[in-house]
Design brief:
Blueprint (H helix, E strand, L loop, with lengths): L4 H18 L3 H18 L6 H28 L2 H29 L10
């Protein structure tokens, strides 16, 4: 089953964050496999913009940081109001991420738009 460019780029940005933050060496191999799949799209004439990698990296980094704050708050302070604000921040951040992925779908003509109901 072929993974579409938006999903590949999203997975690559998440792996890049995991590699940077955990140093797990086996993740580099998986990253390279996804990169090979991206190269096949390029060879087939599909334009893959570098800015899409940067945008998804930043969106996923933002979510990672919000989730870290959320876990810290849930485990230590249990300030329900702050936890609620963090959940709302996750939703807003995810909407940004989905919008980027949808632009990639539109730009490549590959895959399907993601539609969130809430």
């Amino acid at each position: 089953m072929e993974i579409m460019p938006a999903e590949l780029i999203d997975k690559m940005s998440i792996l890049k964050l995991k590699i940077e933050r955990t140093g797990e060496p086996r993740l580099s191999q998986q990253y390279n496999e996804y990169n090979t799949a991206i190269e096949k799209f390029k060879e087939a004439g599909i334009e893959i913009k570098h800015e899409w990698f940067d945008e998804l990296y930043e969106a996923n980094k933002e979510q990672w940081e919000i989730y870290a704050q959320l876990n810290e708050e849930k485990n230590n302070n249990r300030d329900l109001e702050k936890i609620g604000r963090l959940y709302v921040a996750v939703e807003k951040s995810n909407k940004k991420r989905v919008a980027i992925k949808n632009r990639i779908v539109e730009g490549t003509g590959k895959g399907f738009r993601d539609i969130k109901m809430n």
